[in-house]
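Ticket 4471: requesting a sanity check on a complex prediction with FE2/S2 (inorganic) cluster. Repro inputs:
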Amino acid sequence: MFRSLRSDSAPKITLTINGQAVTAAAGQSVWSAMVLCGQPVTRRAALSGQDRSAYCAMGVCFECMVVIDGFPNQQACLRQVAEGMTVATQTITEDRGAPDAGL
Ligand code: FES
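Returned structure tokens:
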């Protein structure tokens, strides 16, 4: 479904995406590396748990949040891959507790 437009001569780097070692072209976005290796899910919705992925791919919608090197809320569409980088699908749930019955 997706293919890279970068030439095969671009320098390669190795990163880990959800525990899978992945080779990507230097300068490639984290999101494109995820899609090309078959792992397009960037995060799970806080309330529904629904799988999400990039929508705008240009830094506007924030649908592409991932955990990079242990730091959550990184935009996969804007970050470039780096040697040794670790990327994980982000799952942050919101615990709002019980509704306030006293209102
Ligand atoms: S896909 Fe919209 S901000 Fe990354």
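Notes from triage: The first strand starts at residue 12 and ends at 17. Leaving this open until the requester confirms.
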